[in-house]
Amino acid sequence: MDIAIVGLPRSGKTTIFNAVTRGAAQVAAFSSQTKPNIGVAKVPDDRLQPLVEIFEPAKITHAEVTYVDIPAAPEGLGQSKGISGEYLNQLQRSDALVIVARAFDDPSVPDEGNGVDAVRDIETMLYELTFADLGIIERRLERIRDNLKSAKTTERDRLTREQALFGRLKDGLEEGVSLRRQSLTPDEARQVEGFQFLTNKPVIVVANVGEDDIDKADDIEAELNSKFGGDGVLTAALSGKLEMELSQMDPEDEKEFRESLDAGESGLDRMMSLSYQALDQLTFFTCGPTEVRAWTVTKGVTAPQAAGKIHSDMERGFIRAEVVGYDDMIQTGSMAEARKQGVFRQEGKSYVVTEADVVLILFNV
Asked: Is residue 285 a contact partner of residue 51, using CB atoms and an 8 Å limit?
């Protein structure tokens, strides 16, 4: 999973990035950073340790999520001028977007004289995503019109259908309906997939609150959810500064300090949960004496597709999957005992992987 973090200047997006990746990227208000900060966060998973105790592997590997802190936006972002160039390309390459909005007061961080208004800033960023998609659609429609002038009859039919589709998408966006909320047939969805439209991506909206407002985080999140939630948009309220400071501490010290502040689950845990939810992901495990490893795949994938996540040869030469549910694996304590107790299964190509399956892939190439 590659997730881009964006926000207006001084929203604290890099602080949120540091909190979820345990990073130390420059967070100065007037940083001249022009390249994205990239951090790989290991997904916390309490289910790994019991598997380690059973299989005693030489190596333990957590699932990972890559977060990309997009650098300061080009001049004009937030002023209805759209997103373009490399900034747009970086967002298009991501699987989901995190929009960070300032919800904290800090005299040392200027607010451009407009005051602090998270809802306003979120709406501004969502408008910018819409303007970017409109720009892509308008350029595509212009190209279709040019191609129609010299198209043969068979090609003309295809271009005319595509023109109607993109015209409909454009009308919807102009009415404030994101592509996520527009009804597309499977064939139409495939047609637009390659364009990587921003309003078609899942979005996580994060209000970056001050430390003094931690006790109001639930109320702020509920307000955001009522305003923006649903249709592929998730919401959260986090104190980026506090979470960044806590993320730099020793895990035991962090846990103790967090409990003393009644700060709830960590920003990392919260963002991981939202990232999985936004992209409809699940975790399965591969276990053996060499390695116990967590893998992330989209819900609904078949066993061969999950095998392809491990290695393309495994998908190409898939024979079968040997599967034990996580709870059964912990209860029986070994693959041999799982066989004896009848909870070991052999599954074919049509098997749909479920959450926390312990899987062994048999293949031949």
From this structure: yes
